[in-house]
Specification:
single chain, alpha+beta, 4-stranded antiparallel beta sheet
Length: about 90
């Protein structure tokens, strides 16, 4: 495990090697702004009007994202989603 500590008001992005379709980001990363951690996604796009290349970014609060979608375990699976897919028959309303 790395001893890397992100400094405030910095970010890092890396190529998304798992991209399978255009709707998925070209790059992914993390940032810290004013002490708040964010997940980042970036798409490389081309302007239809001018033909210029530009980058479109999306930021999501990291704590919120992990709460909503679950934190990835070391094996790469989504812990919250895995738990959600297991059903206890006592929880069923019928």
């Amino acid at each position: 495990m790395s001893n890397f500590t992100r400094k405030d008001n910095t970010a890092s992005m890396f190529k998304n090697s798992f991209k399978e379709k255009d709707s998925q980001p070209d790059m992914k990363g993390e940032a810290m702004v004013d002490g708040v951690e964010y997940k980042m996604a970036c798409w490389k796009k081309k302007s239809e009007k001018s033909g210029d290349t530009y980058y479109s970014f999306n930021f999501q609060n990291k704590a919120y994202a992990e709460e909503m979608y679950g934190k990835k375990s070391e094996g790469g699976s989504n812990e919250k989603a895995s738990k959600a897919n297991t059903t206890d028959s006592e929880d069923l309303p019928f």
